[in-house]
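Cross-check.
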Amino acid sequence: MEKIIVYLDDAEYAQQQLAPMLAARTGRAGGVNTHWVLVACAPRMTRRISKWVSHSARENWRAKWSEKLFAAVTPQLRADGDEVTMELAKGPLCDLSSQLVGKHGACRILDARRPKFGHPMEPVTEDQRAATGAKWEVPGAVAGLGAMLVLAAE
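Predicted model, tokenized:
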């Protein structure tokens, strides 16, 4: 049985990322099933939200948010009789990845989280951590100034 850990935070984007894998899976012969381990990465809340919302209310919101996300993604994964395990990410994702690999054995890891411009994404493995440090990001003010100069030149 093939095991795949999928980190996701947006159902529509994750379905787009999983579509090629699901199409390849339907073409496989021999009835090999896949065990999907879905890990929901809830959006970050601001530091100051604790002033207005209790810890238990935040945890309840995260649980409801993840249930909604899983309800949108799991039907297409279970369509061919595959097994689906659902987790809610708490803490650093690299640590969670090592725990899940230790628990489930050899797994493929897929990062299907929607990228957000200007917000660096937390790496899900140690290998990814080394690769993300080399990116160059353009601050919004510099990009806006460049666009203004291009428009003024025309």
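The chain has a mean pLDDT of 81. The radius of gyration is 19 Å. Passed to J.P. for a second look.
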